[in-house]
Specification:
The chain has 440 residues and is mainly beta. It is 3% helix and 52% strand. 41% of the residues are buried.
Length: 440
């Protein structure tokens, strides 16, 4: 914690009167037509973390016990090239890397996030796209515009199949999108990747549901939001986390994910023996959520952001997945149910309530060095495999030197630790992260 605060303090003198090129605020554009309707655009984002983490019990690095870790890593580095080549033809390509820290394989890891071509049969109302895409359900943040996140991360539990049968929440398939009045919709049909090529560990076949290793069935998903006030841009799949008072947005959304026979498990017979036959389960997920983002006082620049939702996930009985972003350790010795490092059971069969809020102070609160935005978030889940509720709390502050283009984020997260034997919460651990983001 002291190391992270020290890094923030020593930066302050060098950031006074910081400037950012205004023409890069929304990306670097090259126009292809006199009326500016056709263009090619380049965007970039880099998010670097300096972190102190209280590791889960028994966490190790190459077999050596580590009670806590201080590290620096690249959480996200992305390059996006997109364009509207004509009234009906568009493309979107994203390339980059995630979660590169001192444990990562060197000189490897960058990959395609998106690669799509799109044709508008009815401009603005109905477009059909093909390729590696993230037009997902079940919630608003199933695919986020990462440069505009309110805190450090979007609600990770909405990235439901991340790197198990997709490529960082993207799948190969076809999607339809558009706006019908104030109704914004997206629907996609895709062929998930086989789990044998997953970059994360896939749980073995047990009495608890896990991802099937059979040939995957098609996945159908969608998300629909009614936009009561200002209309949001739906050129790309990522949704905005906070507009910093630039829009008045009030949306109610609902979404779903369905994949037949996505999961499997063993079953117990009436005599309490394990059946020789494998049981298959569909993945059925749905949600309803609300997003509000608006200025409080336009003249001085104060703004409020609120997001909340209710999520019902069915991956089959007993499914549970630990998630540890850019995990600072790589093994355990007699550890907890959470697994290693900063892992926590964020995704599973059960119900989740999520709430996030942020308040942006007036413009130039810090003079030419920008302003501040405070935020907090809680994920409260009842998973059928856990004997007590799972609650993860985040709180922090954004130092908006030049909006999202140049900002520091200081975040504290508190997570529960569960016993492997009882599935009861037995402790809580914390993590402090200082992030610096540059984007255009």
């Amino acid at each position: 914690m002291k190391k992270i605060l020290f890094l923030l303090v020593i930066c302050i003198p060098f950031l006074a009167n910081a400037q950012f090129p205004a023409r890069l605020k929304d990306g670097l554009k090259t126009y292809l037509s006199a009326d500016s309707s056709s263009y090619i655009k380049l965007n970039f984002v880099s998010q670097v973390w300096a972190r102190y983490n209280q590791n889960n019990p028994g966490s190790t690095v190459n077999g050596e016990l580590q009670n806590n870790t201080f590290d620096v890593g690249l959480r996200r580095v992305r390059f996006v090239m997109s364009g509207q080549l004509s009234k009906r033809v568009a493309f979107f390509v994203q390339f980059g890397q995630n979660n590169f820290n001192y444990l990562s394989p060197r000189k490897a890891g960058s990959f395609l996030h998106d690669a799509t071509a799109e044709y508008a049969f009815v401009p603005k109302k109905f477009s059909l796209g093909f390729g590696l895409n993230g037009w997902n359900g079940p919630g608003r943040f199933a695919n986020s515009s990462v440069s505009s996140i309110l805190g450090l991360d979007p609600p990770i539990f909405q990235e439901t199949t991340n790197d198990v049968n997709d490529q960082f929440v993207r799948k190969l398939g076809v999607y339809a999108k558009g706006k019908l009045g104030k109704l914004d919709y997206r629907v996609s049909l895709s062929k998930p990747f086989v789990t044998q090529t997953a970059s994360t560990t896939v749980d073995p076949l047990t009495l608890n549901s896990s991802y099937s290793m059979q040939v995957p069935k098609q996945a159908l998903q969608g998300y629909f939001m009614y936009q009561f006030l200002d209309q949001e841009n739906n050129f790309g799949p990522g949704t905005t986390g906070t507009y910093l008072g630039r829009k008045r947005v009030l949306n109610i959304g609902t979404g779903f994910v369905h994949q037949d026979k996505a999961m499997w498990s063993k079953t117990l017979l009436s005599d309490n023996t394990v059946s020789p036959d494998t049981a298959y389960h569909a993945m059925n997920l749905w949600s309803v959520d609300l997003f509000y983002d608006a200025p409080i006082n336009k003249e001085i620049g104060t703004a409020l952001t609120i997001y909340t939702g209710y999520f019902v996930y069915d991956f089959g009985k007993g499914y549970l997945r630990n998630v540890g972003p850019m995990n600072p350790t790589n093994g355990t010795k007699n550890g907890s149910l959470n697994g290693t490092g900063n892992g926590a059971p964020l995704i599973g069969t059960g119900n989740t309530i999520y709430f996030q809020s942020g308040y942006k102070f007036r413009d130039k609160l810090l003079g030419e060095s920008g302003t501040l935005q405070i935020y907090s978030a809680i994920q409260y889940s009842n998973f059928d495999r856990l004997k007590s509720p799972m609650a993860v709390i985040d709180a922090g502050v954004n130092w908006l030197i030049y909006g999202h283009n140049s900002k520091f984020t200081l975040n504290y997260q508190n997570r529960p630790v569960y016993s492997s034997a009882s599935a009861q919460a037995i402790d809580r651990k914390g993590e402090v992260v200082l992030q610096y983001q540059v984007s255009f």
